[in-house]
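Here is one chain, start to finish.
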Amino acid sequence: MRVGVETAEIEVFTPNANANAFALKAERGHNRPPMERMTRQKQAVLHAIEHSGRSLHPGEIQALARRDVPRLNLSTVYRQLKALVDEQRVNKVAIPGQPARFEAMPPSAAQQAQGEGHSHSHHHHFHCLNCEQVFPIQGCPGHIESLAPDGFHVASHDLTLHGHCADCSQSRGASSENH
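Its structure:
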């Protein structure tokens, strides 16, 4: 018995051709930047971030993602975070003096309706000094540009409030009442 083999068109990209890979895909009707495939590990990392409701450091992400992929190691979490940041599905949150944290980037209304990529929604953060967790703060006080010295141009801004989250404030209040 003879088995037939179908031939397929194979594209080979060399370093010079890779520069034109996006343009080639655009000609064929693919307008989005190329994304890596969604592995179980990447899906577990993304799921952990999307369902946390706050910014997480890699160790927290690993602990949550291990519910789906029990043998997930920290180096794999870092690799997946880099890929998700590159794909603009996750945002890196930098708080001075703290390890980097990561949060999901919510889809904009237009992109969500069209089933397209993600867009970062402007917001700020609250850093708890007790438990070290970082929470999103929706909204912006606005007019921060007016704080810049005359002649300066503000390109962007980040605002982080530091204090005690609701859980830690409640715990601190309960412990001070017992003394």
